[in-house]
DNA sequence: GCCGTTTTCGGCCCGACTGTTTTCAGTCG
């Protein structure tokens, strides 16, 4: 069982316990275990009980339940809970405005266990017979049922950022003196975002009318004097929170999250005799305000360093902030070049000269032109002859753009058996080789691992491109033993790519951290297929930051000569 | 069910908004 499946079972147990009305803290234990397992870098099914207990939030009982799941594929406890309710009851929990208490009441009073039952009962006006449910709630439930298909789904980070920027500029135009800041998962740079959170500082409640009046607002979920929620076209939910200036930092800290990070921070506050909320940090006994204007002030008062938003995921950042060992994270300004892009020679939209000129305008010191190889026929991939001719054209441009070095490269397919798509002597004559998997993505774990390990043995491979081949919200990562790939990359001196395509961001934050912790060099590359796409390095950088990556971990922070020296092909250990 | 710089027992983050209420429970983030 993979981590995702195990996490799903744990989350379902939490849902079922909630409907049963069990102890809230027990529920939280299952819920937080599900979250930590879902993002744990190594397969937890392969860990023994003792190793499992080193994972924060997993104790004796949960370790035993995970072992059971790993060994037998089922959890008796889960099965037992499922037997108490029709499993379809869990679908009801997903409806906006319907929580565990309502689900339990619906089932115990009207025996409602499916969305269809619920819709029928609501239409017939039978729900309002239940204590605590009136006509409005009934209508709200019907609406939630209609909207449920649209509500599902998260959005890519880049799209969320664009929508948020649009919202902010709209609000700003109506309230020039108010400060608006996107917070939440967007500020943390999560690869996908479920909603948009914006903090407004220093305005009055008329802002809320402006907010719900945005032309893209389809539904107002709630509107108060300091907080409003709306549903936007494109099924985005957006929340606006208004706080006074003196609470700016507290509100940013609170609404940036993550939830797991905040729970730990607040726990720390409590232990030190404070109370922390979105308005500030207060002494518990006297309510005297200790901090709140700045985030830095809050963390400082709690005896820790300010934590970069990207690190706030409860992945060791609290301990590091207390110990003063937080990493200095990479920034876009640290990057000197871009090592993965395409031109019209294969499937790019813009030609070689246009791409080079654009890279020059961006201030890059070097770029690698890496068109596809012949196996990707659909993309007009290059064979050996065309690849070398293309390389000659690329090199001929050196000197044309002041300060820009062009490296003649290729993105060479890794064939299903692990051979590379182009002959060794061709690869040897290029300056730079990215090797990538593009096809036969459904190979089993063993086959895929063997395939990639074999490719990494080729001495001319400098970088492994988008290592897990995932497409966010569309396609799962390939099945592969990533720790083995990372070990092989380390052994052979191959760098791993963080691909900046919005739907790739591959390596992911968690996997980038894994590679970085094992001392494997990374590159951050756009994989641009057009001039416009050259600008998206920031998304890969943000993913890297979430992976605790420092400038020294990334090869394209180096100048061109130092970069060349670090490439595998120029290393003596080849 | 987890966890420990006060604890191996007794805690466990906190507030806004809504709807159905005459003082609060449920949901959400």
Could you estimate the helical fraction of the residues in percent? 40-55%
Tertiary shape: globular
Q: Could you tell me the number of beta strands? A: 17
| N/C terminus separation | 37 Å
Low-confidence stretches: none
Q: Structural class given helices, strands, pairing?
A: alpha/beta
State mean pLDDT (0 to 100 scale). Answer: 93
How does this structure look, described?
By secondary structure, the chain is an alpha/beta fold. 43% of the residues lie in helices and 14% in strands. The protein contains 24 helices and 17 strands. It has a seven-stranded parallel β-sheet with strand order 11-12-13-14-15-16-17. It has a five-stranded mixed β-sheet with strand order 2-4-7-6-5, sandwiched between helices. A three-stranded antiparallel β-sheet has the order 8-9-10. β9 (280-283) and β10 (289-291) form a beta hairpin. α1 runs antiparallel to α2 (24-38) and α20 packs parallel to α21 (482-492). The chain is globular, with a radius of gyration of 26 Å. The chain starts with a helix and ends in an 8-residue tail after the last helix.
Could you give a quick summary of the protein structure above?
The chain has 24 helices and 17 strands. The protein has 574 residues and is α/β, with parallel strands linked by helices.
